[in-house]
Design goal:
Elements (H helix, E strand, L loop, with lengths): L1 H10 L2 H14 L13 H25 L5 E2 H4 L3 H4 L7 H6 L5 E7 L5 E7 L1 H16 L1 H13 L5 E3 H11 L6 H4 L5 E5 L5 E5 L10 H8 L3 H6 L14
Antiparallel strand pairs: 1-3, 2-3, 4-6, 5-6
Length: about 240
């Protein structure tokens, strides 16, 4: 039955029209359009300043946690991927932009060429020590942040490389020492691709609470809590025209 219908359709050219229509649709599915992006100088400056602040903050943490007072540039370059700097910017050039934060020195290598080294200024050391004290005072909060991140994953586990890339956005300290202080919560594991990962050992129901729910509880809005409806402000970004 299907064979006779197929042969009749071919004789009348029906299938040819269908194939041509299919080819036509495939050809017009790709459209080359040039869009004129609207520049937002305020937003661009914020993005650039945040990028530089992130890179400088990570470098400060690396130098502070190092055993050396001045870290050679080739050792700092090993962490370049974490900094998020554009490829065209040399790391030494970027560090020299902030003389109030970094202090430069040098030593001669075996070939007699100077090797740049960078340490921290007194002001940077003082500020970073205050930052470390804040991390220690709020270690439980940072622990819970990391727990929530791992609870979002399938196996409650992430590679350390991925966690390092998210530390800045989550406000986590650069050092992994606070992880070692919670052996009942976290465990280092070997992943299938031979990388080292961090695994959450158990699920904590107390952490599965949104900020909206916390605010509603603090404000004692019992009806909203029972109904599961929470009020929150809505703001829109500037319209780009």
């Amino acid at each position: 039955m299907f064979r006779s219908i197929f042969s009749s359709a071919r004789n009348y050219g029906f299938l040819d029209d269908v194939q041509q229509g299919y080819i036509y649709q495939q050809k017009i599915s790709l459209v080359n359009i040039k869009l004129k992006w609207v520049k937002d100088r305020t937003m661009d400056s914020v993005v650039v300043s945040k990028r530089d602040l992130k890179a400088a903050g990570i470098l400060v943490s690396i130098i502070y946690s190092s055993e050396l007072d001045y870290v050679p540039i080739y050792r700092l370059s090993r962490h370049r991927r974490q900094l998020g700097l554009p490829d065209e910017i040399k790391l030494a050039v970027f560090i020299r932009r902030y003389p109030n934060v970094f202090v430069e020195s040098s030593f001669l290598d075996s070939g007699g060429s100077p090797v740049p080294c960078f340490g921290l200024s007194r002001v940077a050391m003082k500020i970073h020590r205050e930052e470390v004290d804040i991390f220690q005072e709020n270690s439980l909060e940072f622990r819970d942040r990391l727990c929530r991140l791992l609870m979002l994953t399938r196996d409650w586990m992430l590679p350390l490389q991925t966690i390092d890339q998210l530390k800045w956005d989550l406000g986590l300290p650069y050092q992994d020492s606070f992880v070692m202080n919670h052996p009942k919560r976290f465990s280092f594991v070997r992943l299938r691709d031979d990388r080292v990962g961090l695994k959450l050992l158990f699920w904590d129901d107390k952490l599965v609470v949104s900020e909206l729910e916390k605010n509603a509880i603090l404000q004692q809005q019992e009806e909203d809590i029972k109904n599961g409806t929470f009020a929150f402000p809505v703001s829109f970004t500037r319209v780009l025209v």
